[in-house]
Amino acid sequence: MSFASLGLNDNLVQAIHECGYTQPTPIQQQAIPLVLKGGDLLAGAQTGTGKTAGFGLPMLQRLSETKARPLANGRAPVRALVLTPTRELAAQVEENLRAYAKHTDLRTLVMFGGVSINPQMKALGRKVDIVVATPGRLLDHVSQRSIDLSRVEMLVLDEADRMLDMGFIRDIRRILALLPKQRQNLLFSATFSDEIKTLAEDLLHQPEHIEVARRNATAETISQRFFEVDKGRKRALLSYHIGHHNWRQVLVFTRTKHGANRLAEQLDKDGLPAMAIHGNKSQGARTKALSEFKSGGIRVLVATDIAARGIDISELPHVVNYELPNVAEDYVHRIGRTGRAGSNGEALSLVSAEEKPLLKAIEKLIKQSADLEQVAGFEPDPNAPVAAPEPSRGGNRGRQGAGQRNGGQRSGGQRSGEQRSGGGQRGNGGEGNRNGANAQRRRPRSNGNGARSASQNG
Ligand code: AMP
What we know:
Distance between the termini: 48 Å
Strand content: 5-15%
Bound molecules: adenosine monophosphate
Helix content: 40-55%
Number of domains: 2
Number of helices: 19
CATH class of the largest domain: Alpha Beta
Radius of gyration: 22 Å
Structural class: alpha/beta
Largest sheet: 7 strands, parallel
Strand order of the largest sheet: 3-4-2-5-6-1-7
CATH topology of the largest domain: Rossmann fold
């Protein structure tokens, strides 16, 4: 099947060709004709399926087919809005849309917090057809009156599940209230909680439903392996895998920012060039780490869940769960960083005795049982005490962060910081809270040998 046969015009087909895409992915095959028809869409699509082009290409075509009336102040209106949970994803989506729009006269702009608002305000003074934004920074612009959303014709909620998970629901509803009633709505989500279903019911009018992979499914192109290892031997086993298989590009997940920093430093000392990416890093540091990783300057990128959300590196070959996530869905998101758009990938998980309950939750979610393997020389010590998991040092992200935020306490300036969470307080603390809850639940398993977890973990 060709892109042209999906109804896309020559300008777009040419741009896709220049991006190196030859065949539409399954989500693109389904979404493009539906979005071109102008109706609302509810799409279940996991990361890496090509969903950005799935909504972006028909969006560009629809916008290029009609001319927008100027606003009362003579300016060109913003005609489409894409909301994403994190800065990285916003940047990635806008970059893709810009590439697809190359042969059209449509202009895109990305806006997220953690960077100065001034260049974004200046850019809004020019013609901008499509804005890709994180909710908090968009509301900053609304409160500064630098953006007028009253003419938005198309709205996309990308990774809606993650936006809700990050506590953005109230911001999303505030933004919805600023949009004209008559518009096309597209909602993309990897998972479907009751909260997402409620949002979809409120937002979408007689939507078409598409789902390209089973809910909470992992892509078939990803080979998943699970290695049993003592917590204190994880770093050695990770170094072994990297060295033994001569991996040149591996994304490693830790549960906490502190853990990410520490592991990156230690790997670097071991002679494996590594950097950490997480919410406490400045946007500049995050961008630098990502570009070094993409260009091969570093071999290992150590990331926390939130920071990694928007990372898109084509054909990323290896993902390692250095620590299993506390929330099983994050496992699907993590390993979705590899095996993207049809290429093969490998996801390794290092599982210590104290993480077995987390593994069980993951098995249940992905409806697969994990074969635990051992590597000679790294076999777990059957007599080793099971330590309580290391508490995270984060603040309070997640639903509690959302609670604070929903209380309406924050000023515009604070909100910009919060977008880092993407990063900032919430990115951090959510991990902290979740860990805390889990740590408490599992504490009875501990023999009280807490020192082991802190000093020996990698
Ligand atoms: P997405 O799920 O939109 O983040 O896309 C995942 C990756 O697949 C990105 O690197 C895209 O550039 C790439 N991609 C999207 N569509 C295609 C396609 N039809 N053929 C090859 N690569 C694609």
